[in-house]
Amino acid sequence: MPENTTLRDALQAAHKDLKPCSDTPQVDAEWLWGHALGRSRAWMAAHPEWQLTQEQRARGNYLIRQRQHGYSVAHLCGRAEFLDFCLRLNQHVLAPRPETETLVAKALSALPPRARILEWGTGSGALALAIARARPDCRITALDCSRTALNLARRNALALRIRNLHLVHADWRKIWPQGRFDLILANPPYIAPHDEHLQGPGVCREPRHALIAAQKGTEAFRILARRGRQHARQGGRLVMEHGNTQGAVCRRIVQRAGWGRAQTLPDLSAQPRITCARR
After folding, report:
1. Domain check: are 188 and 62 in the same one?
2. What is the pLDDT confidence band of residue 2, given thresholds at 50, 70 and 90?
3. Residue 231 near residue 184 (C-beta atoms within 8 A)
4. Which domain, by its residues, includes 48?
5. In this structure, are 130 and 243 located in the same domain?
6. How many domains does the chain have?
7. What is the CATH number of the domain that holds 177?
8. What are 142's strand-pairing partners?
9. Where are the beta strands (DSSP E) in the chain?
């Protein structure tokens, strides 16, 4: 990139470079160059002729190359927007995706007053924080087996001034909290160990422990369905996200575990992603 490169030049070059690896190359280019410059997208739109320094060019080009190598924009910028708030991120947690907003909407529907809620595998805290913000009368317990993830979720909760969230370090295969819950929800790992999608853009650099599940990707569904029923109150609900081809198997697992009739719902892209049931 020449020394007299303007911001417009850099954005145009990044758009071209990112086309092969991104469905939204223009948006990605704006986010990454904005992060490199420490400027908002609105500022960049108003200053297209800004002359980039050598340091700025190097920083921006590095981010573009990392995006080409499969890192998500959210992880490269260290933050992500989810619903109406912003989250800090690091390489140890999944970047929240727009389709997961449907999981929040379903979890909030028909939630009784002062409900007790359990989220399994909270990561950055996106799901638990969204519910805690929407329903301050409810008590949310969020589990994760990673202390690093819990520390990040705690920082996000403090930044959002959330007080009705309790974060717990626990392995979902071994220990669950005592008591019964009105809602149990999770966006668990559901990709089989050798699935080709693990090499795809936006996935290949995500933390493997948050993606891969044994038993052809169904291990987490089986444990959540079985243990979840033991910890759900009468009338309590189970809500899980899964792959867009796993609706039928997820419903069978849930119903065989003793829940009522399971239902699979579409996400924002009309893909069958959310399965829910009532005890």
Report:
1. no
2. low
3. yes
4. 7-69
5. yes
6. 2
7. 3.40.50.150
8. 119, 167
9. 79-82, 85-88, 116-120, 139-144, 165-169, 181-186, 232-241, 263-266, 272-278
Q: Is residue 83 part of a domain?
A: no
Q: Which residues contact 15 (CB under 8 A, 6 or more apart)?
A: 25, 26, 29
Is the same domain home to 195 and 266? yes
Q: Which residue has the tokens 């303007």?
A: 6
Which of 60, 53, 55, 46 lies closest to 18 in space, CA to CA?
Answer: 60
On the CB side of 264, how many CA atoms lie within 13 Å of its CA?
19
Chain-centroid distance of CA 19 in Å reads 24
**Beta strands 116-120; 139-144: pairing state:** parallel
Tell me: do 124 and 262 sit in the same domain: yes
236-263 b/e (C-beta count within 10 Å ≥ 16 → b) = bbbbbbbbeebbebbbebbeebebeebe
Is the CA virtual torsion 113, 264, 195, 95 positive or negative? Answer: negative
**CA 164 to chain centroid:** 20
pLDDT above 90 for 54: yes
How much is the pTM? 0.86
Pick from 173, 177, 175, 153: nearest CA to 165: 153
CA distances from 204 to 67, 91, 199, 200, 242 (A): 11, 12, 5, 6, 18
- The letter for the amino acid at 207 is P
What are the tens digits of pLDDT across the range 173-211? 777 888 899 999 999 988 888 777 666 666 667 777 777
